[in-house]
Specification:
Blueprint (H helix, E strand, L loop, with lengths): L4 E5 L4 H12 L3 E6 L2 H10 L5 E4 L5 H15 L4 E4 L15 H29 L2 E6 L12 H18 L6 E7 L6 H7 L9 H14 L9 E2 L3
Parallel strand pairs: 1-2, 1-4, 2-3, 4-5, 5-6, 6-7
Helix pairs in contact: 1-7, 3-4, 4-5
Length: about 230
């Protein structure tokens, strides 16, 4: 293995995939996961060991625990953990959000991050090394109508990450990161036809990849954003 050892959830699409492919090209070792078995297989066909991609629903605590153990056996404690996996519901007033949809967004966007942290952070703490980047949003620091469920999850990620940052040993960092507005499948759900007005992951990653790699102890607990 060369370069940094990086773990990315939600690595099969959007900004997660852009980061994974960029960092592999730069010589880092990337392990990732995603919900689409077809996209996971595509990535495994394109990138051989020591890189690895697995099909995973981060909202399943048993599956995440098993996957985390596999990651640690394959990679060891990561130098960089990116909790990126997230979903969003259709735009609607909060009182019209279906109960099942609200629960699903909470399960993926909050509980999923917790399950991954619980699976991987103890080994990182034992090694006293590693940066944890939990992907937040502009909607984790401000709000808009008809996206209250998503806002609630990203506000939670901000608070969770800042609290975690105070619990880590001095050699580590936990950082909530807003990626900015990027044209992804998720953005198309809430921005509809306006999503195409924003840069895609292939453009975004040119600034984002080096910026994220630069994050460290000095940014522990700080809410940061990818430079635009």
């Amino acid at each position: 293995m060369s370069g940094k050892k990086i773990v990315i959830t939600g690595a099969t699409r959007g900004i997660g995939r852009a980061l994974a492919e960029t960092w592999i090209a730069e010589g880092h070792t990337v392990v990732g996961c995603g919900r689409s078995a077809a996209l996971v297989e595509e990535l495994n066909q394109r990138y051989s060991a020591p890189h690895r991609f697995d099909t995973l629903d981060v909202s399943d605590p048993t599956a995440v625990a098993t996957w985390s153990q596999t990651v640690l056996e394959h990679l060891g404690p990561p130098d960089l953990l990116i909790n990126n996996a997230a979903i969003i519901g259709e735009n609607r007033p909060l009182w019209e959000v279906p109960t099942e949809e609200f629960s699903r967004v909470i399960d993926v966007n909050i509980k999923g991050v917790f399950y991954v942290l619980k699976g991987l952070v103890p080994a990182m703490v034992e090694a006293n090394n590693g940066v944890i980047v939990n992907v937040s949003s502009g909607w984790g620091r401000t709000t808009s109508p008809e996206v209250a469920t998503y806002c609630s999850t990203k506000y939670a990620i901000e608070g969770l990450t800042q609290a975690l940052s105070a619990e880590l040993p001095n050699g580590m960092a936990a950082i909530p990161l807003s990626p900015g507005i990027v044209h992804t499948e998720l953005l198309e759900i809430c921005f509809t036809h306006h999503a195409s007005e924003f840069p895609g992951p292939d453009v975004w990653v040119k600034k984002a990849a080096p910026y994220i790699l630069s994050l460290g102890r000095k940014q522990n607990g700080q809410s940061v954003s990818v430079p635009q």
